[in-house]
Design brief:
The protein has 705 residues and is an alpha+beta fold. It is built from 15 helices and 28 strands. The protein has a 7-stranded mixed β-sheet, with helices on both faces. A 5-stranded mixed β-sheet has the order 7-15-14-13-8, with helices on both faces. Helix 11 packs parallel to helix 12 and helix 13 crosses helix 14.
Amino acid sequence: MAATNLASPVGLPLDRVDGRLKVTGKAEYAYEYAAQGSALYGVIVTASIGKGRVAAADVQDAQKAPGVRLVLTKDNAPPQHPFGPVDLPDRFARAMPALNNDEVPYFGFPVAFVVADTFEQATAAAAMLRVGYAPARGSYDLRASGSTAINPGRISSTDPADSAIGDFDTAFASAPVKIDAAYTTPYQHQAPMEPHATMAVWDGSKLTVHTSAQLTVSPQEGLARTFNMRKEDVRIITRYIGGGFGGKLPYYFEATLAAMGAHILSRPVKVAMTRPQLFYMTTHRTASEQRLRLGADSNGRLTAYGQDALVQTASFDQYVEPVMLAARTLYAAPNRLTRHRLAKLDLPRSDSMRAPGDAIGLMALECAMDELAERLNIDPVELRLRNDTQTDPEHDRPFASRHLAECLRQGAVRFGWNKRIAKPASVSDGRWLIGLGVASAIRGDELRSATARARLTPDHRLIVELAMTDIGTGTYTILTQIAAEAMQMPVERVTVRMGDTNYPPTDGSGGSFGAATSGSAVLFACQKLKAGLAAGMTEAEGSVTPAELSASYSHAGFGAHFVEVAVHRDTGEVRVRRMLGVFAAGRILNSKTARSQMIGGMTWGIGSALMEENTVDQRYGSFIAQDLASYHVAVNADVGEMEVVFVQEDDPHGSPLGSKGIGELGICGAGAAVINAIHNATGARVRDFPATPDKLLPALEALDS
């Protein structure tokens, strides 16, 4: 039955098994499940004030508009469970009521919902609504809130907001060489290609929700909680997702309103957020105010490491951006102090965005390390090597595997780091100043819970089912490879079905745990099935839990970024000419999709360093950039030559597959390498990110003086 002596498919650069469906338009996304004519269209009306309440809503013109079937406001929305509970262990399964009261906690909060026969009719009617407000004074300024910020206590279920080891104050004060610098990072938004969208349909008391989500079980529980239903009566289907980046971990108002409208009208209702609505109706990455203090001896060994961060959360929430979660474990230093402070502002919820905490925490730390290297007159690669450690300095336990030094050394050789001239502004190409930069990467590795079912059909095909999601990362493909290897079958005879709560539950995609978690469940299911074939078994389930990851070790992936930039001497324009990322991430499940993940993260780092930011209009509490014309992200023209290298790494204490998460490792440290290269090119030290041309011009002008 099963093919034998097959080459192991795991690790091979297999093309995406769902690729043809996507490029031919046959992969159905959330908004495409019901054709025009069979579903009604919903449009959300949002608040135009930053804080207050809805005083009145004039809906008469909208109700009379052509094709309109329903206009919902606070006055006629059905009862729902209040938001929360705020302290629910799974914050993505909280109730998310809509139009349940007159409160407006932030700009862009939903205040009405219109359903019509066509999208155009719903949009036109929504514009006819007249909403009156009773505005209130809001708090929107992160920096101004620093004096009233709170200690949140924890940044995760297991990690404290503050940590202290040794005597930081004394060690820092007595250090012969030290850095004490402030860094700021801006608000950022995920802006996935596919906007958040939902189509809901009821069959009696049972609700089916086709939605664009990274998770399946959480929105199932959350919607059941919102509508006071049994969880078993809610089905989530999310088979294809056009990008998530953490922004689709929560479910949002469009899902609640689609379900509400479909129930009232007894028709399928579909809702898609507009691009501007994504910028204020979904979550974002908080801005941060950080202080870095590094103390070192004359040989460059850290004696003191201190990092403080001020971050934002919504006034009604408690999410804390874990700025120092990975930074705490990157370098050895006997005296350590880290502190998170939380400002509750009248802004939309902040929450996970690719490498939450780590992306911005390492941005500051790795720039500070570059400043320290310059002050010590030590090569930046060498400084990092001198402070490498095989023991987690925060938790005093060994790393299961840590090959940061190999990444730095291999990267330095491949990149030609020995050609770097330490003195800034020493290399030019016409009017372009050339510089090289480096930064380390670290991203914690974890395992969650998942169950998979493997079933052998009479024609000897393998069907694998689990409520996992593929947010564009290639999950369908790697699970196919894992199943094929475990069953010793050709990949062509394996079909993976996902994105449906009718399948066995998983914790979904996020936090770089998806591949190892769901892949391990598939591995166990297939191993159990294969072992039972002789006894006539045709179906088996396998499960994985966090207990599979040894608690005696710290688990993380590591890497090193090397960047060459060119900065125009007259305009301050920055061009990334080449970028190399060398990573140690355990067993690579698919070399092609893994490389794509790293390139995506590195490109994101370029954007974070050079252009990606949003600001708050302090008058109205609104984000100023609300589309991709004004919110700039890195595009092809911004990216030069890019190379990704994986260091061979075995991790016997890691996941059952031996793999590590790679979806976020590529962004960690990437932006700092760009910033450090800019300094080497120009002498400019940018600490207020991103490094836009206006921040470089003073240093450039000084070169000519």
